[in-house]
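User: As part of a screening pipeline, I want to sanity-check one entry by hand. Below is the sequence and the SMILES for 2-oxoglutaric acid. Please return the complex as structure tokens so I can compare it with the automated output.
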Amino acid sequence: MEKIDQIPHHEAKLVDQNGMSRIIRVPIVQELARRGLDFLPERFIRVSPGNEIATPSAHDSGEACHPIPIIDMIKLRSEGEELSKLARASKECGMFLVKNHGIQSEVLSGVRTAVKGFFGLSFEEKRASVGSYSSTDNVGYGRNFVKSEDQRLDWIDRLTMKAAPKDATLGLRVWPQNPPNFREAIEKYVECARKICDELLEALGESLTPPEKNVFLKYFEEERSEINARVNYYPPCPRPDLAMGINQHTDASALTVLIQFENSGGLQVFKEDEMKWFRVEWPVDDGEELLLLVNFGDLMEIMSNGCFKSSWHRAVTQKDVERFSVALFYNPPAETEIEPIESKQIDGVSYKKVVVGDYIKHFYDVNPTDTKEAIKFALL
Ligand SMILES: O=C(O)CCC(=O)C(=O)O
Ligand SMILES: [Fe+2]
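Assistant: Here is the complex for your manual check:
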């Protein structure tokens, strides 16, 4: 067996505490998994024995499951009852599933083929396909949030692109050239998802008391709003009980739209009222419409002045199962100043105005953290 450090690595550039620029080698998880390791390399060990993570394979042993409310887009356009359901779901755990979204199955299967095609390439082909990118922008094929050599790593490989505004990646080859239709497939999906997000933003405004349809949507502009597309690949993991696919976090976004392609499980949400992690029940039935999962990020928590809290979530891994997910992060244009709505401040938390780009920069400076740290930046 090769030594771990002979297995291909990403190189993460960072500036250390003394202001020195350094390069950290980060193993490519897919390459580790391909070699059929029967142990978990130390940098990936998150928990100590006796304190294992409840993984999807433990479903049958009674791990708590959280049924996520399903919002029907057709009903949402016509029935007040669906709006109340959206309001309840949004307050309860900051995420919900969306059905009857109208995104054609060919668009979604196009994303699936493109994503699986990319991860089906050899490492050299993947690297050549993506080319160079700016790691400070958190885009490209590689790792983000790696800030030190002793940091615990997630069992994941990822690829992140700025999908909107349209010219955002001009001059940077971050869109894979191979599979050749990768960009087209993702961009088609992004445009469909954007429409759903705009409708949801409007509905969320309408669900407030008093209703204010435009209160969130007004910050978004088709030509300038940002959508980052992140493709997550979780290879089979030798010790799902000790590793994490994505460690606990909130997203920086206003809205995040997630899809997964198989019934592969993995996503978990933390419910503050019960102080517990729950497996997210997110069914994918053969031949059925693929449900979108929408979750709130920090920008939504700020805009809504704590009314719609960003969800604290994570993804676990599995022993013999690989999983793909695609996350779209939808944000107002970077220069936009968002102003929290007036709110009753039930829990005494209030936010102040922030510029979107300032918040996102702060979020990446602060993360990864084990607590909801970054959002304190926006507290009144
Ligand atoms: O893979 C998932 O289900 C979650 C991904 C996620 O939380 C993220 O990309 O921010
Ligand atoms: Fe996330």
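Points to compare against the pipeline: The CA atoms of residues 248 and 314 lie 4 Å apart. Confidence is low (pLDDT under 50) at residues 57-62.
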